[in-house]
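User: tokens in, sequence out, please.
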């Protein structure tokens, strides 16, 4: 039968999740890992081959030459490699580069056949050349495949697997040579390893083939000047403030890494007796570093989900410096030295992975290959300078590996200091985000609506002091905020506002802050405004102020509605009647951030924006509702909790204890005086056969827990209508462990156990309910904070809309959107600017 309360509307649907694009990168990640393995396996056995045939004293010199040949193609061909990656399909460039490994390995195999170290060096140079073309293409294709939201994660995996390929390749090449050289001899061993690597090169090309095609963007045609435009590309890179520092930091890491590689090879020769075993030793140390880098890259990928955390860079730089100090003091080989190798790798990953992600993101689509190639050029110039430094220290000054390690501490410590000062805000931010990862589980929905570039005004509900932190952790770009000037009275918050460039608004300086906000939006800065004007201390969304709409119109930017769901109940909210001084309801604490579609500033009004935010809240509320089986389980667990004391005192003074009422629910033979007997029958029916209509009981329970109503010592519930009455009894006292008093006037008083005999006045509850959606709106208690009062109720209204509901006006009718079908509110006509439901 059709209810007089409703007119059928569209069914509720949860927004579908889009399939992540990250898995499409798997063939690319695997193939480039094999490529890195191949290059560094060759690089590892060539110095040991020289030491075996020419003499141990030549190993360091050959290692310097090999390192130089690895870098040289990145310098010579940097502009051409960047132009190629921009001009042609990056998939095709990568495929050709992977196949070109076979040419270099063929030359290397010929060198081992003719027992010529010079020909082997030519083959290695060709391998390095194909890597110089592969590098900008494989990095540039990442954002095209996964987009901004997953770029940080993809970069973390790519860098982790690259380093793993480098270090496992170095370890395998050195160890295999040591294992086979005794039986096969030096040249035969080198040839066998080369043929094995050639097979892996073919596998890497075959694995890569399923990689999807990417679009080719228009770029400049070829001109001979491209071949020698190194300086111009490098100058262009260094003119861009953000990209410049990311490229310099990335170059610093790889230069230091190359220098440290040379030191470990040299150190292995200093501590090893005889010709055999040196490769295994430094290969083992590099494998340990690889383990550290692998863990560090995975940690970055985990923390960088949906964003790029530059705050990890100073942590990584400081950790690298301290690890290097420890390595200088530790005895090699030894357990502490090995642990510090792992530590150096871990913190190194924390330093360079975010920089690499930032570099790939900030480079424009049509010049990404050029920018990345120029960055490679800068990296290799740094590498050559440190190879020259090592040659000077080792060949001219005769310094030991440990002495060179000590010299390296000073510049690395300087990098740590500079990154800490320049990225101090990001440094603190990353610790907050680590805290959130441990204590919170934040589900993010709709982030595809957030633009990658340009100014945008975020308008969100406001339930806790931690809301800016939640939004900052969810959104991939750095968001700035507007806050009330009264909050800056605290020294700590004043310092936080200054550090985070938060603008404050007050009656005396609102115009200045308004102008600054418009200027920031014009510069493309995302700005967040909590349009309720303060934290909701009653638990529901309050009315929105006009400032957000005016700011968007003057700034000519879209409004992006945002809803924070599940925040009421955290220690930072007013739930329980206080901020902070309580325990969270569960650990880790689960909440969600839902982002809606952008609203044009020309079409926005404070009421329409509020409706969009409420609709996001409704979708989030519905999405976290469990199945019917889970609803029944949770209700039964709460109903049959063991408790003592009085459940009901009727108007004649008869007392019914909790254990008697629970027994009556379990056993239908037990008879109690009404209304307790009727209540027991209703509860028994729900616990035995949970039906579609019973979900209203569950949603009423959840909605009331997300308001300040439960903070009241006592509540007065009128028997104004049967629909109103059945929403409250017996469910509210039963599920919230309250005692019921029946008065002679027909009212019901619901009290906390400890207040039965205190004679405190109870709060009279009024509002709106329907059979379909249960409790819809309530006049809640006011909340006092110092001299200010936040109104929870207003005389002559039906109260504030409860969490999980939204509404819209259609042809003069107020349509409620809840868990099921939409409902026309016959008894309500509109919502006032403060968010109260007005009666007909």
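Assistant: Sequence out:
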């Amino acid at each position: 039968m059709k209810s007089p309360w409703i007119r059928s509307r569209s069914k509720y649907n949860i927004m579908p999740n889009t399939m992540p694009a990250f898995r499409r990168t798997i063939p690319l990640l695997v193939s480039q890992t094999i490529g890195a393995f191949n290059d560094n396996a060759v690089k590892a056995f060539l110095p040991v081959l020289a030491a075996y045939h020419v003499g141990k004293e030549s190993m360091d010199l050959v290692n310097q030459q090999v390192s130089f040949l690895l870098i040289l193609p990145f310098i010579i061909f940097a502009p051409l490699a960047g132009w190629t990656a921009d001009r042609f399909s990056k998939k095709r460039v990568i495929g050709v580069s992977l196949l070109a490994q076979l040419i270099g390995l063929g030359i290397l195999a010929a060198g081992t056949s003719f027992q010529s170290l010079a020909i082997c060096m030519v083959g290695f140079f060709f391998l390095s050349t194909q890597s110089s073309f592969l590098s900008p293409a494989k990095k540039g294709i990442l954002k095209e495949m996964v987009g901004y939201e997953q770029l940080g994660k993809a970069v973390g995996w790519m860098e982790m697997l690259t380093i793993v390929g480098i270090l496992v390749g170095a370890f395998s090449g050195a160890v295999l040579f040591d294992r086979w050289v005794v039986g096969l001899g030096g040249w035969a061993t080198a040839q066998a390893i080369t043929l094995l690597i050639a097979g892996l090169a073919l596998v890497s090309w075959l694995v890569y083939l399923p990689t999807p095609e990417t679009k080719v963007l228009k770029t400049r045609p070829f001109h001979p000047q491209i071949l020698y435009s190194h300086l111009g590309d490098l100058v262009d890179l260094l003119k861009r403030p953000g990209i410049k520092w990311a490229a310099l930091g990335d170059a610093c890491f790889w230069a230091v890494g190359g220098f440290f590689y040379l030191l470990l090879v040299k150190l292995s020769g200093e501590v090893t007796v005889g010709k055999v075993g040196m490769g295994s030793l430094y290969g083992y140390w590099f494998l340990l570093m690889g383990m550290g880098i692998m863990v560090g890259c995975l940690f970055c990928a985990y923390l960088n989900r949906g964003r790029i955390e530059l705050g990890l860079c100073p942590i990584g730089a400081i950790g690298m410096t301290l690890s290097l100090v420890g390595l200088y003091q530790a005895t090699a080989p030894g357990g502490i030295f090995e642990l510090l190798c792992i530590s150096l790798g871990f913190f190194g990953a924390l330093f360079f992975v975010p920089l690499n992600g930032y570099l790939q993101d900030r480079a424009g689509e049509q010049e990404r290959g050029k920018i990345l190639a120029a960055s490679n050029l800068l990296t290799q110039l740094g590498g050559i300078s440190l190879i020259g430094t090592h040659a000077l220290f080792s060949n001219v000054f005769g310094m030991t590996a440990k002495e060179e390690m000590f010299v390296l501490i000073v510049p690395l410590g300087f990098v740590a200091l500079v990154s800490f000062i320049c990225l101090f805000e990001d440094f603190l931010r990353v610790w907050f985000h680590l805290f959130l990862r441990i204590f919170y589980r934040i589900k993010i929905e709709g982030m595809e609506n957030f633009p990658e570039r340009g100014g945008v005004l975020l308008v969100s509900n406001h339930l806790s002091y931690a809301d800016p932190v939640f939004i900052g952790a969810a959104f991939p770009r750095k968001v700035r905020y507007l806050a009330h000037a009264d909050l800056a009275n605290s020294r700590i918050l004043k310092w936080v506002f200054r550090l985070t460039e938060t603008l404050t608004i007050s009656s005396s300086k609102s115009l200045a802050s308004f102008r600054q906000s418009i200027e920031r939006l014009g510069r493309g800065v995302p700005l967040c405004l909590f349009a309720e004007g303060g934290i909701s201390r009653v638990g529901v969304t309050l009315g929105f102020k006009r400032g957000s709409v005016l700011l968007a119109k003057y700034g000519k930017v879209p409004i992006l509605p945002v809803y924070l769901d599940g925040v009421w109940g955290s220690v930072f909210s007013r739930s329980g009647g206080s901020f902070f001084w309580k325990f969270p309801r569960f650990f880790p604490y689960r909440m969600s951030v839902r982002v809606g579609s952008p609203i044009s500033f020309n079409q926005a009004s404070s009421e329409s924006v509020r409706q969009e935010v409420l609709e996001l809240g409704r979708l989030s509320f519905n999405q976290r509702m469990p199945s019917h089986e889970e609803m029944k389980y949770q209700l039964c667990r709460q109903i049959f909790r063991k408790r003592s004391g009085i459940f009901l005192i009727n108007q004649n003074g008869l007392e019914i204890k909790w254990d008697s009422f629970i027994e009556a629910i379990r056993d239908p033979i037990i008879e109690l005086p009404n209304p307790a007997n009727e209540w027991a029958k209703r509860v028994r029916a729900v616990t035995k056969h949970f039906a579609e209509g019973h979900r209203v009981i569950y949603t009423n329970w959840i909605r009331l827990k997300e308001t300040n109503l439960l903070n009241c010592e006592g509540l007065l519930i009128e028997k104004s209508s049967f629909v109103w009455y059945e929403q409250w009894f017996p469910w509210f006292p039963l599920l919230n462990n309250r005692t019921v008093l029946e008065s002679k006037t027909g009212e019901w008083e619901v009290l906390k156990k400890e207040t039965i005999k205190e004679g405190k006045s109870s709060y009279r509850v009024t509002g709106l309910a329907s059979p379909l959606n249960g409790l819809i709106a309530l006049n809640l208690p006011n909340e006092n904070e110092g001299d200010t009062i936040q109104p929870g109720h207003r005389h002559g209204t039906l109260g504030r809309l409860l969490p999980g509901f939204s509404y819209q006006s259609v042809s003069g009718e107020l349509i409620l959107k809840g868990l099921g079908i939409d409902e026309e509110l016959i008894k309500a006509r509109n919502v006032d600017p403060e968010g109260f439901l007005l009666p007909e």
